[in-house]
Q: What sequence folds into this?
DNA sequence: TTCTCATAACACCAAATGGTGACATGTAGA
DNA sequence: TCTACATGTCACCATTTGGTGTTATGAGAA
Protein backbone atom coordinates (compact mmCIF):
# COMPACT_ATOMS: atom_id res chain seq x y z
CA UNK A 1 0.00 0.00 0.00
CA UNK A 2 1.04 3.60 -0.60
CA UNK A 3 2.89 5.26 2.26
CA UNK A 4 0.91 7.77 4.28
CA UNK A 5 3.09 10.71 3.40
CA UNK A 6 2.59 10.05 -0.29
CA UNK A 7 -1.12 9.64 0.24
CA UNK A 8 -1.25 13.01 1.95
CA UNK A 9 0.72 14.66 -0.86
CA UNK A 10 -1.68 13.17 -3.39
CA UNK A 11 -4.84 14.20 -1.59
CA UNK A 12 -3.41 17.61 -0.96
CA UNK A 13 -2.68 17.97 -4.67
CA UNK A 14 -6.21 16.88 -5.56
CA UNK A 15 -7.74 19.40 -3.18
CA UNK A 16 -7.38 22.25 -5.66
CA UNK A 17 -9.81 22.49 -8.61
CA UNK A 18 -7.19 23.95 -10.96
CA UNK A 19 -4.89 21.00 -10.30
CA UNK A 20 -7.69 18.50 -10.92
CA UNK A 21 -8.43 20.27 -14.20
CA UNK A 22 -4.76 20.13 -15.15
CA UNK A 23 -4.91 16.37 -14.62
CA UNK A 24 -7.94 16.16 -16.90
CA UNK A 25 -6.07 18.10 -19.58
CA UNK A 26 -3.04 15.85 -19.16
CA UNK A 27 -5.37 12.91 -19.70
CA UNK A 28 -5.86 14.15 -23.25
CA UNK A 29 -2.23 14.86 -24.06
CA UNK A 30 1.10 15.59 -22.48
CA UNK A 31 1.82 19.30 -22.10
CA UNK A 32 4.67 21.74 -21.53
CA UNK A 33 4.32 24.39 -18.86
CA UNK A 34 3.67 27.04 -21.49
CA UNK A 35 0.91 24.91 -22.98
CA UNK A 36 -0.72 24.48 -19.58
CA UNK A 37 -0.50 28.25 -19.05
CA UNK A 38 -2.32 28.80 -22.34
CA UNK A 39 -5.25 26.71 -21.07
CA UNK A 40 -5.69 28.55 -17.78
CA UNK A 41 -5.94 32.18 -16.78
CA UNK A 42 -2.84 31.98 -14.64
CA UNK A 43 0.77 33.13 -14.54
CA UNK A 44 3.51 30.71 -15.46
CA UNK A 45 4.75 30.94 -11.88
CA UNK A 46 1.35 29.86 -10.56
CA UNK A 47 1.17 26.96 -13.01
CA UNK A 48 4.68 25.92 -12.09
CA UNK A 49 3.67 25.76 -8.43
CA UNK A 50 0.66 23.63 -9.26
CA UNK A 51 2.81 21.27 -11.31
CA UNK A 52 5.32 20.98 -8.47
CA UNK A 53 2.55 20.04 -6.06
CA UNK A 54 1.13 17.54 -8.56
CA UNK A 55 4.61 16.06 -8.93
CA UNK A 56 5.01 15.82 -5.14
CA UNK A 57 1.69 14.01 -5.14
CA UNK A 58 3.10 11.52 -7.62
CA UNK A 59 0.25 12.36 -9.99
CA UNK A 60 2.40 13.50 -12.90
CA UNK A 61 5.80 12.66 -14.35
CA UNK A 62 8.18 15.13 -15.94
CA UNK A 63 10.70 14.63 -18.72
CA UNK A 64 12.99 17.01 -20.57
CA UNK A 65 12.59 17.40 -24.30
CA UNK A 66 15.17 19.85 -25.56
CA UNK A 67 14.57 23.10 -23.78
CA UNK A 68 11.05 22.06 -22.92
CA UNK A 69 9.77 20.38 -19.79
CA UNK A 70 7.06 17.91 -20.69
CA UNK A 71 4.47 16.91 -18.10
CA UNK A 72 2.61 13.62 -18.34
CA UNK A 73 -0.19 12.11 -16.33
CA UNK A 74 0.95 9.40 -13.90
CA UNK A 75 -1.85 6.83 -13.84
CA UNK A 76 -0.14 4.80 -11.10
CA UNK A 77 -0.22 7.68 -8.66
CA UNK A 78 -3.84 8.38 -9.42
CA UNK A 79 -4.74 4.76 -8.97
CA UNK A 80 -2.93 4.55 -5.64
CA UNK A 81 -4.91 7.51 -4.39
CA UNK A 82 -8.18 6.11 -5.69
CA UNK A 83 -7.41 2.91 -3.82
CA UNK A 84 -7.84 4.73 -0.53
CA UNK A 85 -11.57 4.66 -1.14
CA UNK A 86 -11.58 0.87 -1.29
CA UNK A 87 -11.58 0.82 2.51
CA UNK A 88 -15.19 1.98 2.30
CA UNK A 89 -16.27 -0.50 -0.33
CA UNK A 90 -18.23 -2.39 2.31
CA UNK A 91 -20.56 0.60 2.64
CA UNK A 92 -21.24 0.96 -1.08
CA UNK A 93 -22.59 -1.68 -3.36
CA UNK A 94 -21.39 -4.89 -1.74
CA UNK A 95 -21.63 -7.00 -4.85
CA UNK A 96 -19.59 -4.51 -6.80
CA UNK A 97 -17.06 -4.12 -4.00
CA UNK A 98 -16.25 -7.77 -3.56
CA UNK A 99 -16.22 -8.49 -7.27
CA UNK A 100 -13.94 -5.57 -7.91
CA UNK A 101 -11.58 -6.78 -5.22
CA UNK A 102 -11.53 -10.24 -6.72
CA UNK A 103 -10.69 -8.83 -10.13
CA UNK A 104 -8.00 -6.62 -8.70
CA UNK A 105 -6.27 -9.38 -6.81
CA UNK A 106 -6.24 -11.34 -10.05
CA UNK A 107 -4.96 -8.44 -12.12
CA UNK A 108 -2.42 -7.58 -9.48
CA UNK A 109 0.35 -9.57 -11.11
CA UNK A 110 0.20 -7.48 -14.27
CA UNK A 111 0.19 -4.04 -12.63
CA UNK A 112 3.46 -2.59 -11.40
CA UNK A 113 3.75 -1.54 -7.76
CA UNK A 114 4.09 2.19 -7.12
CA UNK A 115 6.85 1.54 -4.63
CA UNK A 116 9.98 3.22 -5.88
CA UNK B 1 -22.91 13.44 -11.82
CA UNK B 2 -22.04 15.37 -8.69
CA UNK B 3 -22.01 19.13 -9.07
CA UNK B 4 -18.60 20.74 -9.22
CA UNK B 5 -19.02 22.77 -6.08
CA UNK B 6 -19.83 19.64 -4.13
CA UNK B 7 -16.89 17.86 -5.68
CA UNK B 8 -14.61 20.65 -4.59
CA UNK B 9 -16.01 20.60 -1.04
CA UNK B 10 -15.45 16.86 -0.89
CA UNK B 11 -11.89 16.93 -2.20
CA UNK B 12 -11.10 19.84 0.04
CA UNK B 13 -12.41 17.87 3.02
CA UNK B 14 -10.33 14.84 2.04
CA UNK B 15 -7.18 16.95 1.76
CA UNK B 16 -6.56 16.86 5.49
CA UNK B 17 -5.15 13.70 7.12
CA UNK B 18 -7.08 14.21 10.36
CA UNK B 19 -10.35 14.38 8.44
CA UNK B 20 -9.54 11.23 6.49
CA UNK B 21 -8.78 9.48 9.78
CA UNK B 22 -12.08 10.70 11.21
CA UNK B 23 -13.82 9.08 8.24
CA UNK B 24 -11.99 5.82 8.94
CA UNK B 25 -13.14 5.95 12.56
CA UNK B 26 -16.68 6.70 11.47
CA UNK B 27 -16.47 3.62 9.28
CA UNK B 28 -16.24 1.56 12.46
CA UNK B 29 -19.03 3.27 14.38
CA UNK B 30 -21.00 6.48 14.58
CA UNK B 31 -19.54 8.99 17.02
CA UNK B 32 -20.44 12.12 18.98
CA UNK B 33 -18.11 15.10 18.87
CA UNK B 34 -16.81 14.29 22.34
CA UNK B 35 -16.04 10.74 21.25
CA UNK B 36 -14.13 11.99 18.22
CA UNK B 37 -12.19 14.36 20.48
CA UNK B 38 -11.20 11.43 22.69
CA UNK B 39 -9.62 9.69 19.68
CA UNK B 40 -7.50 12.63 18.56
CA UNK B 41 -5.13 15.00 20.32
CA UNK B 42 -7.24 18.01 19.43
CA UNK B 43 -9.53 20.57 21.03
CA UNK B 44 -13.26 20.17 20.68
CA UNK B 45 -13.31 23.39 18.67
CA UNK B 46 -10.82 21.97 16.19
CA UNK B 47 -12.77 18.73 15.85
CA UNK B 48 -15.97 20.68 15.36
CA UNK B 49 -14.38 22.57 12.48
CA UNK B 50 -13.23 19.35 10.87
CA UNK B 51 -16.72 17.88 11.18
CA UNK B 52 -18.24 21.00 9.64
CA UNK B 53 -15.91 20.72 6.66
CA UNK B 54 -16.68 17.00 6.32
CA UNK B 55 -20.38 17.85 6.41
CA UNK B 56 -19.93 20.52 3.73
CA UNK B 57 -18.18 17.86 1.69
CA UNK B 58 -21.22 15.65 2.04
CA UNK B 59 -19.03 12.95 3.56
CA UNK B 60 -20.87 12.66 6.87
CA UNK B 61 -24.43 13.05 8.11
CA UNK B 62 -25.43 14.47 11.48
CA UNK B 63 -28.43 13.67 13.67
CA UNK B 64 -29.47 14.84 17.11
CA UNK B 65 -29.86 12.25 19.86
CA UNK B 66 -30.95 13.99 23.03
CA UNK B 67 -28.30 16.52 23.87
CA UNK B 68 -25.78 14.70 21.72
CA UNK B 69 -24.89 15.31 18.09
CA UNK B 70 -24.21 12.02 16.37
CA UNK B 71 -21.99 11.93 13.29
CA UNK B 72 -22.27 9.12 10.74
CA UNK B 73 -20.30 8.25 7.66
CA UNK B 74 -22.09 9.14 4.40
CA UNK B 75 -21.13 6.42 1.92
CA UNK B 76 -22.95 8.15 -0.96
CA UNK B 77 -20.80 11.25 -0.68
CA UNK B 78 -17.65 9.18 -0.54
CA UNK B 79 -18.70 7.19 -3.56
CA UNK B 80 -19.50 10.31 -5.55
CA UNK B 81 -16.02 11.62 -4.85
CA UNK B 82 -14.40 8.30 -5.71
CA UNK B 83 -16.27 8.34 -9.00
CA UNK B 84 -14.18 11.30 -10.12
CA UNK B 85 -11.32 8.88 -10.63
CA UNK B 86 -13.33 6.85 -13.12
CA UNK B 87 -12.46 9.41 -15.77
CA UNK B 88 -8.95 7.97 -15.70
CA UNK B 89 -9.98 4.34 -15.82
CA UNK B 90 -8.73 4.14 -19.39
CA UNK B 91 -5.19 4.71 -18.15
CA UNK B 92 -5.27 2.00 -15.49
CA UNK B 93 -5.94 -1.63 -16.02
CA UNK B 94 -8.21 -1.60 -19.05
CA UNK B 95 -9.81 -4.95 -18.37
CA UNK B 96 -10.67 -3.92 -14.83
CA UNK B 97 -11.89 -0.51 -15.93
CA UNK B 98 -14.33 -1.70 -18.54
CA UNK B 99 -15.59 -4.59 -16.43
CA UNK B 100 -16.12 -2.31 -13.46
CA UNK B 101 -18.06 0.10 -15.62
CA UNK B 102 -20.25 -2.69 -16.93
CA UNK B 103 -21.00 -3.83 -13.41
CA UNK B 104 -21.72 -0.32 -12.25
CA UNK B 105 -24.12 0.44 -15.06
CA UNK B 106 -25.93 -2.75 -14.12
CA UNK B 107 -25.98 -1.97 -10.41
CA UNK B 108 -26.94 1.60 -11.08
CA UNK B 109 -30.65 0.96 -10.66
CA UNK B 110 -30.21 -0.10 -7.05
CA UNK B 111 -28.04 2.80 -5.92
CA UNK B 112 -29.65 6.13 -5.07
CA UNK B 113 -28.48 9.28 -6.81
CA UNK B 114 -26.70 11.80 -4.63
CA UNK B 115 -28.58 14.65 -6.28
CA UNK B 116 -30.54 16.44 -3.55
C1' DT C 1 -35.28 25.11 39.49
C1' DT C 2 -30.56 24.01 39.53
C1' DC C 3 -26.67 21.35 38.27
C1' DT C 4 -24.14 19.10 34.80
C1' DC C 5 -22.41 18.08 30.55
C1' DA C 6 -22.46 18.16 25.39
C1' DT C 7 -22.46 21.39 22.14
C1' DA C 8 -22.23 26.14 19.86
C1' DA C 9 -20.13 30.49 18.90
C1' DC C 10 -16.95 33.78 19.13
C1' DA C 11 -12.14 36.29 18.78
C1' DC C 12 -7.66 35.44 17.88
C1' DC C 13 -3.12 33.54 15.97
C1' DA C 14 0.75 31.27 13.15
C1' DA C 15 1.50 28.88 9.13
C1' DA C 16 0.20 27.25 4.67
C1' DT C 17 -1.86 28.36 0.23
C1' DG C 18 -2.52 30.44 -4.20
C1' DG C 19 -1.35 34.11 -6.48
C1' DT C 20 1.72 38.07 -8.47
C1' DG C 21 5.95 40.49 -10.77
C1' DA C 22 10.89 40.81 -11.52
C1' DC C 23 14.91 38.74 -12.62
C1' DA C 24 18.19 34.65 -13.68
C1' DT C 25 19.37 30.52 -16.34
C1' DG C 26 19.80 27.26 -20.17
C1' DT C 27 19.45 25.50 -24.67
C1' DA C 28 18.38 25.55 -29.82
C1' DG C 29 19.54 28.17 -33.95
C1' DA C 30 21.06 31.96 -36.92
C1' DT D 1 28.64 34.38 -30.28
C1' DC D 2 24.25 36.45 -30.08
C1' DT D 3 19.28 35.97 -29.91
C1' DA D 4 14.97 34.05 -28.71
C1' DC D 5 12.23 31.52 -26.01
C1' DA D 6 11.02 28.06 -22.39
C1' DT D 7 11.94 27.48 -17.96
C1' DG D 8 13.73 28.34 -13.03
C1' DT D 9 13.99 31.19 -8.85
C1' DC D 10 13.10 34.72 -5.69
C1' DA D 11 10.65 38.16 -2.84
C1' DC D 12 6.37 39.57 -1.78
C1' DC D 13 1.19 39.69 -0.78
C1' DA D 14 -3.82 38.57 0.62
C1' DT D 15 -6.56 34.94 2.02
C1' DT D 16 -7.42 30.44 3.83
C1' DT D 17 -6.45 26.95 7.02
C1' DG D 18 -5.91 24.53 11.25
C1' DG D 19 -5.36 25.41 15.61
C1' DT D 20 -6.16 27.70 20.41
C1' DG D 21 -8.91 29.57 24.57
C1' DT D 22 -13.00 31.81 26.38
C1' DT D 23 -17.58 32.36 26.80
C1' DA D 24 -22.51 31.23 25.70
C1' DT D 25 -26.49 28.00 25.02
C1' DG D 26 -29.43 23.94 25.52
C1' DA D 27 -31.25 19.73 27.20
C1' DG D 28 -31.50 15.87 30.67
C1' DA D 29 -31.30 14.59 35.61
C1' DA D 30 -31.52 15.52 40.63
A:
Amino acid sequence: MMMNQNLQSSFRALGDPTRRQILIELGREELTITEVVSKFDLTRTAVRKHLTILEEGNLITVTRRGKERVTCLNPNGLKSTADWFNYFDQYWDNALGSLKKAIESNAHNTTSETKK
Remarks:
- The first strand of chain A starts at residue 31 and ends at 32.
- Residues 32-34, 44-45, 48, 66-69 of chain A lie near DNA strand D (CB under 10 Å from a C1').
